[in-house]
Amino acid sequence: MFITLEGGEGTGKTTQQTLLAEQLQKKGYACLCTREPGGTALGKELRALLLHGDPISPTAELLLYAADRAEHVQTRIRPALAAGQVVLCDRFTDSTLAYQGYGRDLDLGVIRQLNQLATGGLEPDLTLWLDLPPELGLARARSRSRQGYEVSQTVGVDPLHPSQDNGGETPDRMEQAQWVFHQRLYQGFQTLAAAEPERIVRIDAEGSPQEVAERIWQVVSARLSQG
Ligand code: TMP
Asked: Which residues are within 8 A (CB) of 185 and not within 5 positions of it... i.e. 6 or more apart?
């Protein structure tokens, strides 16, 4: 079974991935926990470029996410599924539609074609969309960044104009652009979930990690028992 976790910044995907893997392992399932970008050796290099390198143009960024995914699906996800493992992937194709499509306004049709090329048609059996209002997610992500955790470039810089010199901009304008971006990607996830309600299940991501983990387990255990 192939399960993806999706959502905006600071929605708790990584914590929930770990908790879900622990629960699955207790029930006797073998799991692969992986993520995009960064699930392979090539992907780790791409992740460093994408998240911490110099700003890059939106189209180049899109192609790097696709390259990361192609390598990941081919060398890690498909082999794990073939070996009967449950694959838990932190972000996948829906992130590209939400961030590059709805967020950066790149053509959704082109992104779908690239997703198809990169995955060879592999789709998640279940996608858990961790739904948290962007203002709460951003606050969580910023506090994580203050504690020294890795945080993406989209938290803290103007995500719509990453290559511009923001030296002359007031913090208000930057924050405004950032806010618009995160609102757009939130609406993107809402639209994607509404279009594919069978695959994409909305999980209320407010509350303690244990509360959210229980909501997730209800959904996942029901799917596993369906076979
Ligand atoms: P993460 O640590 O939350 O997974 O951060 C990865 C960042 O990469 C996050 O800001 C979302 C971004 N991203 C995209 O913009 N497009 C994609 O296709 C993927 C997989 C991630």
From this structure: 8, 98, 99, 102, 103, 134
